[in-house]
């Protein structure tokens, strides 16, 4: 039996996020279209001689205690499967925090998948997703990855046809990190649910249809249909994000939108040359920029990159 595993854990963006209701449990009902992207952390898990769970991260701002989602994932698996011993989890962090890119969630997903493989538990993906849903709403998607329609709290997934080679420019202002609970709370307290423009237009079905078509015009169609209800709560509080989005839209991109609860704003580029020009225009000392492609999976072995 091997004693260690090294996995890549991909970030996600929301091509679509519609809030369709607020729930008694404090969460919101959502319709989302999620996409894995090749901005990845590396998660190494090594068996150790004790029952302890140790988490280390290359980014000193990431808390490595019991509040870390990767720690929580390991603790959940230990309580479900007492035969699992202790482990050291090392996270090489590339995905920014407070960015709306599911960085913490994808680390937790990698820990669930890694433990299943390392201790040869033989779990199905659906069993792993059940554990994932106990840890956070977007963690099941981080287990499955690719392109998916997510409903419920975000944990009910229907796979969509792979969006291959979608080219994206990902922009994260260094000084702005946004708390997801704050974004949803602001949306709710400002009564924004009542005035959702998405509902009447049936935008989500249009986006699903565009993805299903899967031809050369798909990125263009998706670019026109990008939608995120949380922009209406978050952008008024952050004029810098409005300026960044407008700058992207001025660059002949196919569309630009905030991902999740922000602060990442991404643009879809028609080709790599244009992506490089867009990136050069928006990059400053205060804004980190990545040019990435869509991925067809989220958690994968360190030496593979599943674009197709
Ligand atoms: O599920 P997760 O812990 O990732 O959610 C973080 C926070 O985001 C929740 O505490 C809640 O404030 C908000 N949220 C929500 N509705 C969802 C998902 C998340 O209100 N469907």
Structural overview:
The protein has 308 residues and is an alpha+beta fold. Helices cover 34% and strands 28% of the residues. The chain contains eleven helices and twelve strands. It has helices at 69-80, 103-118, 125-135, 139-144, 180-189, 197-201, 203-213, 218-225, 231-234, 239-249, 272-282; strands at residues 4-22, 28-47, 53-57, 87-92, 147-151, 156-159, 167-173, 227-228, 255-258, 265-269, 287-293, 299-301. The strands form two sheets. Strands 1, 2, 3, 4, 5, 6, 8 and 12 form an eight-stranded mixed sheet that branches. A four-stranded antiparallel sheet has the order 9-10-7-11, sandwiched between helices. Helix 2 crosses helix 3. The longest helix is centred in the middle third of the chain and has 16 residues, at 103-118. The two termini are 30 Å apart. The structure holds cytidine-5'-monophosphate.
- End-to-end CA span: 30 Å
Taken as a percent bin, the fraction of beta residues is: 25-35%
Helix-residue proportion: 25-40%
Q: Please state the average pLDDT score.
A: 95
Q: What shape does the CA trace take?
A: globular
